[in-house]
Amino acid sequence: MKLKLAIIGFGNVGQGLCEILTSKREWFKTGQNFEWELVAVSDFQKGSVLCDDGLRTEELLKLVQSSKSLEDYSGKCTKGLDAITTIQRSNADVVVEVTYTNIKTAEPATAHVKTAFSKGKNVVSSNKGPAALHYAELKKLAEANGVQYLIEGTVMSGTPVLSFAKENLAGVQINSIRGIFNGTSNFILTEMWKGKSYKASLSEAQELGYAEAVPDADVEGYDALAKVTILANVLMGTNLNPSQIKCEGITGITEGDILKAKAENKKWKLIGEIIKEGTEVKAEVGPRLLNADSAMGGIDGVLNAVTFTTDLLDDVTVVGPGAGRKETGFAILSDLLRINRALK
Amino acid sequence: MKLKLAIIGFGNVGQGLCEILTSKREWFKTGQNFEWELVAVSDFQKGSVLCDDGLRTEELLKLVQSSKSLEDYSGKCTKGLDAITTIQRSNADVVVEVTYTNIKTAEPATAHVKTAFSKGKNVVSSNKGPAALHYAELKKLAEANGVQYLIEGTVMSGTPVLSFAKENLAGVQINSIRGIFNGTSNFILTEMWKGKSYKASLSEAQELGYAEAVPDADVEGYDALAKVTILANVLMGTNLNPSQIKCEGITGITEGDILKAKAENKKWKLIGEIIKEGTEVKAEVGPRLLNADSAMGGIDGVLNAVTFTTDLLDDVTVVGPGAGRKETGFAILSDLLRINRALK
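ok -> structure tokens follow
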């Protein structure tokens, strides 16, 4: 059986996924017993196309790469549907929700996810909004509808974190989770450690495409906060809201602080942590001073890392990219493979 | 259905597993849908006891902890069987092969594994002998008999490596594998970096129980070599023998080398690496000079680490313990959970 996919949001992640699916189609079929068909794509700006018999992904990618509308796609298809209607009308088994994150309202993504569940469709998503604000509710709704809500890509893009804890660490008790969850702020701190000013480091991050023009989500810690909320709610069984978690960014770290740390062979890192104490779970985001030659102190540039402190393995750490087109595309893919295995 | 287990070899790992299984019995049942029964234990020195209806693990652990024979176990059981006969006669679904590694002959472990397969039993093992010398043959034999041969514990004890690559990284292409696979030599190099002599560092490792009286397997790189062989054969599809892989240990590193490295903010690490170049796979074990503040350079003491270089995620690294009673016990458990899930 081919897994039928509808992609909602056709930006970097949606396109990245599409490229991976297309270029590895044969390999997935023979090596992973995974066959797929893209039956709909809907993007707020790039247009919308739906075809129950499947779309040619090569043509869709060419259209967006040449800045054309998806509705220029050739062939008999339904065009111009909005996201909600696309989800309702398509015959997809899985809705891939990869619209932009709105961390304040979590919309329109939450509406997309709920619509998919109400139609008995699984959801795979890298959107941090619904995951950070409504995980417990959405997880319950998915279960009530007999479908899955998988969000590996919301924390460290393709670097396995949620699946690592739930699958590889099944059988151990996780007592705390601690990590560097924002690549942009880590890049800025790394550049400052090398001697640059905050301003110059931020400018470089913006030039390289790591930071937005308004960099608050990264430098004020809000992005790390969303990820910490997701980790706590998915892995520690809490029902926390980001507003309940203390959050401090890196903008208070002065060049003097960096020099002082350097003299002591230490590094400032923006750390998110979740600690279970008895039945209580404490979560926090803030700058921490680490030994430069410690495992977490060695995580520089845009790299992310997470350490699970457990009863049977003490500390286990996963280090990898925390963002990126193909990286987040892979995160979505890894969840699709998970659904595909469960359906076999 | 309860998964029936026979443990062959009741040293640290066998006992560690038994302790975990016993202490978390209820949690496994409710949280992991995993129920088990120990139906046989056989140890070359500690004796042997077999009971198709199940053994009381608490009593077995008490016996060995008070240096008594397993054959003092109370109740109607078959006692005194050797390992092969235990495997043949028991009604176990899974044989847990955790006898001591003999890296030269891989015996008697290989005979245990083959006997289990011939009786249609799965094998879970942390024994590096059969895995390093006969993986391809044993894997084929397992498949021919419709059973599994799972060896997560052979590389970094309970730190997920093989399952991480096969499950979490399913869908990416692994181009190279690079890591610190021997905690004892890493501990010695770390102590030398702190200013101690090789001799003093080795003595400390021996006092702490990290190094054997004859430390060759660790300091000459043979243990890392076995792990590199396993990684290449399991994850890169090769059929290499350790004798085909270039291997150099840490005994050639002088205190002068360490001082020189330190002055350049570098560290010597014993690195195992496997590189895929087209259809060719090159493997090697040897000392490498790394930046002290790099991710792998920050892996100190007995910690192990592995970096997978991939097409979709660039570098992804897992850091954790590489040995230990409860750690390797957990590795066995994680493979048991895998078999349990597959049987549901």
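Residues 2-158+325-343 of chain B form a domain with the Rossmann fold fold (CATH 3.40.50.720).
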